[in-house]
Task: inverse folding
């Protein structure tokens, strides 16, 4: 099965070499694609030296659009499975096999790695933890399945999901909206417990202003997404 | 002497005619495309219609509890500006999506071009076929 590890990156030059090396070590058969979301650090000059496939967006469009670009790249080249991990080293590549398992068994179309699903203590700031918990409960209610980590960026997509999302993957900070969209379109979403680390270097792009802006957008989407028509490629 | 109501009518007719002429001139100069001019033409014609049909406006204003009819004219004007603004927000949103798509396409084509260039460099060049020996 042809598999692509997709790494959307914005200003992650200090951590990318290590992330790529870890992916190569743990998933040697997978191809690696980095989508550079118009970084303004050394990422652009680093990419050709990493020996991976890469795409560079000329303007910053946000994580969601960077992921959608990567999915379109994967679909156009016949990949059958895509695993998305962050470029900051939060998502340990040794956990990728855990994400792949439900897809290989055929028991899910999309798999999410959840840091909270195991019930172990997680090093997340309390305010963020409360936001994640509240959002998780809300999305669980709306999608009628348990969502413990609604902002996790550690995902695996089957071929069916991949071809649906090339045109419909949300933009911005996409994860909660993506959960609602997949539910609306009858995709089988599976959550698996994974360990996550703190970022290797740099700072998150999620500033307080962007956090509140994303929350406001999400409140609107919680109302609107369930009212949208299904896109027709789901399993309903 | 023109009383205040008549003056309002004159100003409203003048404004709507000016708006109409301005929109047509912008379309003539191709500074405004036909697609986006319609909303303004409708606004200008609606304002003109309301200004010319003042008696109807006065009755409508009284019916909804507005006892100063020019305020109703202002309300109609604000309504059309609101509709125009909303329609342009839709246009801006659509154009943002189109720009995002173009940037994605450009990035994917750039990657494709890079791959083709590198595969061309890797492929050994074809040796020219020697011409047949002539006797």
Result:
């Amino acid at each position: 099965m042809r598999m692509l590890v997709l790494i959307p990156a914005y200003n992650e030059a200090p951590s990318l070499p290590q992330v790529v090396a870890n992916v190569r070590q743990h998933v040697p058969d997978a191809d690696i694609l980095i989508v550079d979301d118009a970084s303004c650090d050394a990422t652009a000059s680093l990419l050709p030296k990493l020996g991976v496939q890469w795409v560079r967006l000329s303007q910053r469009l946000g994580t969601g659009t960077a992921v959608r670009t990567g999915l379109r790249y994967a679909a156009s080249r016949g990949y059958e499975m895509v695993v998305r991990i962050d470029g900051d080293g939060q998502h340990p590549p040794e956990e990728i096999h855990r994400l792949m398992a439900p897809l290989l068994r055929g028991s899910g179309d999309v798999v999410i790695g959840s840091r909270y699903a195991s019930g172990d203590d997680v090093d997340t700031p309390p305010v963020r933890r409360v936001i994640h918990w509240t959002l998780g409960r809300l999305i669980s209610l709306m999608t009628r399945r348990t969502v413990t980590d609604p902002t996790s960026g550690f995902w695996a997509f089957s071929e069916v999901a991949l071809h649906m999302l090339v045109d419909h993957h949300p933009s911005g900070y996409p994860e909660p909206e993506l959960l609602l969209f997949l539910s609306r379109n009858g995709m089988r979403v599976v959550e698996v417990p994974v360990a996550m680390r703190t970022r290797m270097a740099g700072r998150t792009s999620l500033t307080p202003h962007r956090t509140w802006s994303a929350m406001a957008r999400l409140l609107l989407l919680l109302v609107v997404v369930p009212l949208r028509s299904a896109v027709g490629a789901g399993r309903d | 002497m023109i009383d205040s109501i008549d003056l309002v009518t004159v100003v409203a007719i003048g404004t709507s005619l000016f708006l109409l002429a301005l929109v047509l001139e912008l379309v003539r100069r191709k500074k405004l495309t036909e697609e986006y001019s319609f909303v303004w033409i409708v606004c200008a014609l609606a304002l003109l219609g309301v200004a010319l049909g003042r008696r109807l406006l006065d009755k409508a204003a009284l019916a909804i509890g507005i006892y100063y009819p020019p305020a109703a004219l202002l309300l109609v004007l604000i309504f059309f500006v609101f509709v125009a603004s909303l329609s342009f927000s839709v246009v801006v949103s659509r154009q943002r999506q189109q720009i995002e798509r173009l940037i994605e396409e450009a990035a994917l084509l750039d990657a494709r071009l890079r791959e083709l260039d590198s595969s061309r460099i890797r492929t050994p060049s074809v040796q020219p076929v020697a011409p047949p020996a002539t006797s």
Q: What stands out?
A: The radius of gyration of chain A is 17 Å. The domain at 3-227 of chain A is CATH 3.90.550.10 (Spore Coat Polysaccharide Biosynthesis Protein SpsA; Chain A). Residues 53 and 144 of chain A are 38 Å apart (CA to CA). Strands of chain A lie at 3-9, 31-36, 53-56, 81-84, 110-114, 155-158, 189-193.
